[in-house]
Automatic annotation (TrEMBL):
The keyword Acyltransferase does not apply. This is ABC transporter ATP-binding protein. One of its GO terms (molecular function) is ATP binding. Keywords: ATP-binding, Membrane, Nucleotide-binding, Transmembrane, Transmembrane helix. Residues 22-287 form the ABC transmembrane type-1 domain. It comes from the Bacteria. It comes from Streptomyces heliomycini. The keyword Cytoplasm does not apply. Pfam families: ABC_tran. Residues 342-582 form the ABC transporter domain. The chain crosses the membrane at residues 20-47, 59-84, 249-270. It is found in: Cell membrane. It is a multi-pass membrane protein.
Length: 594
């Protein structure tokens, strides 16, 4: 049914152009039959004129003139078809890319983090140029056109000799069957290969991108990665070569059957027409033999190609059919300022498809307008908590309440609009500063005063002031005139993006890991001001940052083990106090020995 869906896509693209394309294609398909009839009439006319028929010369001339007219029509229609072809192809290429992007923005994070679904996406992206969709459409029309040609030419040929016509018609069948068989095999191989192909692209990415260069170069990973790449490519090549060998042997043998059948038919035609002295018929016959064979072959190969391309296109349609935004919100608008705060109540979480409990009954509160720091060793579940709070995932059990209302009752888009979040792996947009900060509130990206204020809040003002084109300086090195920043400078820009949002809830996941201590202290001492009284959650490993928070929550193995203010936690002499002293003593020892 892929054919139907492809036709549907084209119809939606431009009903007028698709109709014109179809009509012109069918008209062109009638031309070979007309040419055969006219050639036969012209040649027979000449032959009769030579043997003394007085009217035959005029008939031959008329047939020749008509042949010229048909040739002209063929040329004009052919040119017009080419023009329509270009238009439809351009339009489709742009639209398929657009559809793929739109779909990508409507999926859940869970789908991106699921290896199987991710493979489906990768397979679909290979089709996102729209090339194959277009191919299927033109193949469909090609098959229809050859069918019309075949039918009309067969009528002529069958009236002369049904047996010869049948032999020629059936001759391509064996080779087409083998083509279909091998197409299916090729598709199966390619399907199984998707994870390895991803690995291949990944090795390529590691050795050809700017931000991987330093490490790959200094660890001298280049040759090793190249070897992994080559090993995979060689495995692919071995499998493909075996398939190609089998295909050419079988295809070659079956092709011989086709050649033998058509050559035999030509000989047979020469023999019968010579005996009857029908020169015109012989000329028409020879042309018809060629034409019918080309059309039958074209049609059957078209069907086989359609079959193969439809299999590949199935991936694209499978991607389009992926369920969208399964995570639904309610209708309640998210508050512009929190009244009470956020409460995690006995939250448990297991990543879908895994058996490991990442959060095991987490309970704590984020009082409105306060800043809570979340600490814990790597893998304790801190970022996972943020994913739940921002509703990128749903708790397996337990509840998150905002101002005593379960989080899922709030409108999902509105909730996310009211959260200023920066993750550890924030994006470095290779775009102007205006976008890098303005994307925090995309509707306000032209509001230079607001961007400047956000930059101040994130400690990025001095960086922006020094850039050659200020807010319009392109960052990064991917595009012309791009200006590269240091890691800490990028992080300040990302922080500014979070503040650009002016959200009532601010979540910063290791926001200052790359920022120098002085700037970090400056940003956090002003956090309450810059966050405009927002309720904030900060994940940090540096205790100089953590101690500035109103409350501190310590997470270990998915459980809250301590919760309180800095001084109380120190007095309690638990895990927090131990970790704090380790860091503090490191600094003190260094200070004492210097
Ligand atoms: N998408 C995922 N699918 C399955 N497991 C995951 C996924 N993301 C994280 N995990 C697992 O969940 C656990 C908690 O991860 P999380 O990223 O929340 O830790 P974290 O406390 O933020 O660590 P860090 O301090 O290193 O950033 C880890 O054991 C990790 O392996």
């Amino acid at each position: 049914m892929i054919w139907l869906r492809v036709s549907g896509l084209f119809w939606r693209l431009s009903p007028l152009r698709v109709t014109a394309f179809t009509v012109v294609s069918v008209l062109l398909a009638l031309i070979p039959a007309a040419q055969i009839g006219l050639v036969a009439a012209a040649v027979q006319g000449v032959a009769d004129a030579v043997t003394g028929d007085p009217d035959a010369g005029r008939t031959a001339l008329l047939a020749g003139g008509a042949l010229l007219g048909v040739g002209l029509v063929n040329h004009v229609l052919g040119t017009f078809l080419q023009y329509l072809d270009t238009l439809l192809r351009l339009e489709l290429t742009a639209r398929v890319g657009e559809w793929v992007m739109r779909k990508g923005t409507r999926l859940d994070l869970e789908q991106y983090e699921d290896a199987e679904i991710y493979d489906t996406m990768q397979r679909a992206f290979q089709e996102s140029s729209g090339g194959r969709v277009y191919q299927v459409f033109t193949q469909l029309l090609e098959v229809a056109r050859e069918l019309v040609t075949l039918a009309t030419v067969s009528i002529v040929l069958f009236t002369w000799s049904p047996w010869i016509a049948l032999v020629i018609l059936l001759s391509p069948v064996p080779s087409v069957i083998s083509y279909m068989f091998f197409s299916h095999k090729a598709y199966e191989i390619e399907y199984e290969r998707a994870p390895d192909r991803r690995r291949l692209y990944y090795y390529q990415h590691l050795t050809t991108t700017d931000h991987t260069y330093k490490e790959v170069r200094l660890f001298q990973l280049g040759p090793h990665l190249l070897e992994r790449y080559t090993r995979l490519v060689r495995t692919f090549f071995d499998v493909d070569r075996r398939l190609a060998r089998r295909q050419s042997v079988l295809g070659g043998v079956l092709g011989l059957v086709s050649v033998a059948a058509s050559s035999g038919a030509v000989l047979w035609a020469i023999h019968t027409t010579t005996e009857a002295g029908q020169v015109g018929q012989l000329a028409g016959y020879l042309q018809a033999v060629g034409s019918i064979q080309v059309s039958a072959h074209g049609m059957l190969l078209g069907i086989a190609a359609l079959y193969k391309d439809s299999l590949f296109l199935g991936n694209l349609f499978a991607f389009f059919a992926l369920p969208e935004r399964r995570l639904k919100g309610g209708t309640r608008p998210f508050p512009d300022t929190l009244r009470k705060g956020i409460e995690f109540r006995d939250v448990r979480f297991v990543y879908p498809g895994t058996g490991r409990v990442v959060l095991d009954g987490v309970s704590f509160t984020l009082p409105a307008g306060e800043c809570v720091a979340l600490v814990g060793q790597n893998g304790a579940g801190k970022t996972t908590l943020v994913k739940l709070l921002t509703r990128l995932y749903e708790p397996t059990s337990g509840q998150i309440l905002v101002d005593d209302v379960p989080i899922e009752e709030y409108d999902l888009d509105d909730l996310q609009r009211h959260m200023g979040v920066i993750f550890q792996d924030f994006i470095r947009y290779e775009l102007p500063v205006r976008d890098n900060i303005g994307f925090g509130r995309v509707e306000a990206r032209e509001d230079t005063a607001r961007i400047a204020e956000a930059a101040r809040a994130g400690g990025a003002s001095a960086i922006v002031d020094e850039l050659p084109q200020g807010h319009d300086t392109v960052l990064g090195r991917h595009f012309e005139d791009g200006h590269q920043l240091s890691g800490g400078q990028w992080q300040k820009i990302a922080l500014s993006r979070a503040f650009m949002r002016r959200a009532p809830v601010v979540v910063l996941d290791e926001p200052t890991a790359a920022i120098d201590a002085e700037a970090e202290a400056e940003i956090f001492s002003r956090l309450r001001d810059v966050a405009r009284g927002a309720t904030s959650l900060v994940i940090a490993h540096r205790f100089s940052t953590v101690r500035m928070a109103d409350r501190i929550v310590v997470l270990e193995n998915g459980r809250v083990i301590e919760d309180g203010v800095h001084q109380d936690l120190l007095r309690a002499d638990g895990v927090y106090a131990r970790l704090f002293r380790i860091q503090a003593s490191g600094y003190l020892t260094e200070a004492a020995s210097s």
